[in-house]
Amino acid sequence: MTKDGSLGLADSDSVQNQKGPLSSHRASNDVESNHVVLSEENTAAVIDSAAEKALCRKFDFRLLPVLAIMYLFNALDKGNLGNAQTAGLSKDLNFRPGQYNQIVGIFFVPYVLFAPPIAMLGKKFGPARVLPILMFSFGSFTLLTAATTNFSGIFALRWFLGIAESAFFPLVIYYQTTFYRRGELARRLAIFYAASNIASAFSGLLSFGVFRIKSTLVDHPWRWLFIVEGSITVCFSIFAFFYLPRSAAEARFLNEEEKALAYRRIQVDSSSTVNEKFNLKESLKIFKRPTTYGFLLIEICLGVPLQAVSLFLPQIVQRLVSDPVTINLYTVAPNITGAVMLLILAFSSDGLRIRFPFVCLGFAFTFIGFIIYAALPDAHAQVRVAYFATFMMCWGTSAPSVLLSTWYNNNVAHEGERLTLTSVGVPLANLMGLVASYAFQEKDAPKYAPALITTACFGATGCLAAASLGLFMLWDNRRRNRQQGVNLTAKDVPTLQLRDGPRVEEFRWFL
Prior knowledge:
- This protein is mainly alpha-helical.
- 66% of the residues lie in helices and 2% in strands.
- This is MFS transporter.
């Protein structure tokens, strides 16, 4: 800190003044050192390192565990259908050919249609209140699934489940952006999203145990799966409703100084205006940016492998195992390692403050895993290779989802635009579950070759799209620096000045 309270950036954080002043950034010029000195009011650098770390620790211990558990049950209630199918769901409810694919696919229609309006309501009334209400709803629909006796009943419940879960992930992402800086977000979202992988692993273990229950209280063992998961979800949602703070300013575990620091951090390195009132017309301006459609294309490519693994990993593994009960046990290890890989890539991404190479790496894992599995003529003869390929599938679907959401949230300073893009992008990825649900046809079992090849192609396309968008951003940053005679990066530009996005002269892409 300088004596007058300004923060000088040196070494990697310095801004070289080669041609002239940059209008909104330069408070004064140090001619001798040729460094620009940014006032503390404008800089996006650290305000107080020790205080910020202590504040983040409080958020980590008070918010992340609750959000992670909420998402764990969100993933459980969405993906337990595949586990129930291995225990004879279709046979017990007398499904006709293709009807199982229909109940898997119908979930994604309301999931996409209702995500933007529910997310906007979440912004209006606060995600801290709307998220528990959504959780209570999808837990209730899961409980009701245990009582279904035919195709029509479970089909209707999957529709309402899609509505209840539609805006959950976008709202959690938005909620976290109101507490964490841009460079802190990926690792926190990764910890949160790792709950999805843990949920898939836990669902396999839970199914393994539940399907062994011998009871006359229900006619089919898979009903216990919906009863147990739905009951816990409903109970936890009530706790979350009273626990989650509406904002940092209303967090009971922060003192007044910490609340002020929390507000300041978000103002300079997350949102142009903190807790801004939602304006639909302003928020829709995000679709005037060409890069928005690049991000949405990558979401589409991500959606197919993501949903293929989430919904059909038990069926994929079924090629390796003959015992229906053991199938679910074999899904545990790939999902656990998927969570570990997610954390490794996300922490590395935050440490280097760069996103797109890690997104590309995740897509590469996806492509390789599905291609290897599809290419094996006899999985039993090469069971180790085949099983390792399922690990790569899980590695490749977890990381891109978190890092992609973090990537475009890092590049949008306007809270309304950020929420709008997330509430369209995330459901769009999930809509591609329709492709996955109809690609995995029962007639192709147990190899599912057409579905595996289709999924691999989406992985390869996603890798190319992410690399192209990332290289464009890198080129555009260098072009702006050349024109302005400076050496700015995204961390040198405070978000409070970036409301209008790339139209602002000082804008720099967060790569």
